[in-house]
Amino acid sequence: MVLLTRPLAQVGNLQSLLEVSDLDYVLFPAFEINKIDAVVPKESYDVIIFISVNAVIYSEEYFSQLFVEPLKIFAVGPTTAKKLTDKGVKVDAYPLENASSQELLAMPECSELSNKKVLIVRGKGGSEALKNSLKVMNQVEYLEVYKRSACEVSRLHVESIERFMQTPDGIVIANSVESLFNVVKLVKEIRSYHEDQLKSRTLVVLSERIKVQAQSIGF
User: Which of 27-41, 122-136, 172-186, 192-206 has the lowest mean pLDDT?
Assistant: First the structure.
C-alpha cells in the first residue's frame, strides 16, 4: 500500500498510475495549495525560472506580462517543463531526470549565467538555495503566486493512517522536505506510537536533499 501525501487537488495523476498498476493506496495530504494575489514586477528579465508545476498553474494569468521581451525560460524539472510546454511556452533548459534546484544549477545554461536579471516563479516561503546561488553573479527576484498551508488532522487522515499501518510493507511518497515533516507531525497527532511505525516503512523521495533530511529524523 502507498501513502500519497500530495495535496488532494494534485494527486490525481499518481492515483491513476497506481490504479493501472493495481496498487492500493490511501490519501494523506500534507498540504493544501491556495492561490495568492501577486504583483508582477514591471521590469523585464533575461531569464525566468519556474520552480514547480504549481508555479506554472498559478502564474498563467500573468504570462502576457512576463513574456514581453526575448528571454530564456528554465524549469526545475521535466514535469514542470511539460506543463509549460502544454501551455504553449518554449522551455530552454531543464534537468531531464531529477527535478531539483541543485540539478538545474548544475546545468551549463544556469551555471554560466552572469550579470543577468533572473525572476524565480514559486510558492511563498520556498527554499532559498536557488536564489542564493544565482545572486552571486546576477540580479534575482521572486514572483510568489501560491502558498502551501499545512493540513490539520481530518477524518481522512485518521482513516488513511490506520489503514496504512495495517500493511507492514507500506510505501510513503514524499515530494518535499516540508511535506515529509508535516506528515510526521500529523501522524504523531493521530497516534504518537505510529511515528516509529511510519519511519520503518519504505520512503520514496524525489531528491537527495529530501533523503538527507529524512535520514536525519530517523527514516
Answer: 122-136
**Residue 214: phi, psi to the nearest 5?**
-65, -45
Q: Tell me which residue of 45, 40, 6 sits closest to 145, measured CA to CA.
A: 40
> pLDDT, tens digit, for every residue of 78-128?
999 999 999 999 999 999 877 788 888 888 898 888 999 999 999 998 778
> Is the pTM for the entire model greater than 0.85?
no
- Residue 203, strand partner residues: 172
Q: Please identify, among 116, 148, 180, the residue that sits at the C-terminal boundary of a domain.
A: 148
Short-list 28, 14, 59, 38, CA closest to 150: 28
Among the three residues 148, 180, 204, which one is the final residue of a domain in this structure? 148
